[in-house]
Specification:
441 residues; alpha/beta; Four Helix Bundle (Hemerythrin (Met), subunit A); Rossmann fold; 3 domains; 8-stranded mixed beta sheet; 20 helices; 57% helix; 9% strand; binds guanosine-5'-diphosphate; 7S RNA binding; signal recognition particle; EC 3.6.5.4; GTP binding; GTP-binding
Amino acid sequence: MFSNLQDNLDAAFKNLSGDGKLTEINVATSVKAIRRALVDADVNYKIAKSFTDKVKEEALGKRNVLKSVRPGDLMVKIVQDELVELMGGQSVGINIKANPGIVLIAGLQGSGKTTFTGKLSRHLKNKRNKKVMVIACDVYRPAAINQLAVVAEQVGVDIYKEMDNKNPVEIALNGIAEAKKGKYDVVIVDTAGRLAVDEEMMTEIAAVKEAIQPTETLFVVDSMTGQDAVNTAKAFNDRINYDGVVLTKLDGDTRGGAALSIKYTVGKPIKFISMGEKMDTLDIFHPDRMAQRILGMGDIISLVEKAQEDFDEKEAKRLEKKIRKNQFDFNDFLKQLAQIRKMGNLKSLIGMIPGMGKIAKDIDIDDNAFNKIEAIILSMTPEERGNPGVINGSRKKRIAKGSGNRVEEINQFLRQFEQMRKMMFQMSKMQAGGGNMRMPN
Ligand code: GDP
């Protein structure tokens, strides 16, 4: 995400690194490079121009006040502040205060509405203890209703659907009546999308909105469509005046133009971002953290939050003991892999570590690498997993065959495991004095 923008901005700041102070000339050069970087990231020229005008004004205004700050650092700080501003300043929550709170989901077909509905349901249920019902209002595609049913089951919330009713307003109202009876805290109404903006769809969604009076209307859009995403966001807002935007598929968006332009163009905040197909992560959009990511500073706060969500104190203590005794085995390793998987896409996790954004971009991190390791461990007998020392030549052959690998690959994996174990053991000895070693979860 944002990898080219990051590189190009970096180059723009480097322009200044040899200079002693900011001058009209070096600011102009730098600002021009920043503008080009933004346009390359698919930010509309007008927005890029207005952005860099502000940066220029700030830079020239501050250069005499903050004389001790190096020009490059000052520029980074100014750009960071302006990026935060461009993306809306503060993060904005959703309103679900009613009985029930009603969230209406709108967007084009394939934008990620159903997936997001699942993520939001899971989040409200697990993190905020809400009783959630989803209502299936896509009357054109029975497959869409079934897909929502699958998602609802996956995250453990109830669904209201009427397979034979073709009137979305009726379905939504019936569903809400049911939710009132069942004392649900929140309903999420998933609506039908089309492949492109059309009048019929707009009329329908506007009618649903008018009838159910949602406490929150969210517009879902695929960030990979760049400027189109911004235009669609504008078209929907002109018609249904939504409260916030959900930007999906940021995991595949390398440019980032939509994230940077939507607030400016539409005047509505991005409230959530989606970075994967799995149900397990819902990311609240924080303009400041996003700006840090864009500038390659990482997003350590989100990373720590993610880790904490899945942190199991008891399990950590148990592991700590085993490591201290040098007894960390393949069962433990398997559990750790599952833990990391739960946190989401590996590349995006590494990108959140300060300084690692650029590195993560260049290395090819294949989440499937885990599959290979898991296959190897799963081909071991319980005895081998609990006691790696017993794995001899004939066992290696069997494991290789069972997991579809060559014996050399098994050897290599066992060597790496042994090294890792030794390193953890030594680290635990070094820290034993301090007493509170934490497993790198
Ligand atoms: P809908 O038609 O708007 O309900 O869209 P869906 O929720 O069915 O999503 C369309 C496709 O995009 C599906 O294949 C999803 O798995 C995928 N998808 C949704 N959100 C994301 C995301 O954040 N990242 C990626 N990579 N894929 C996503």
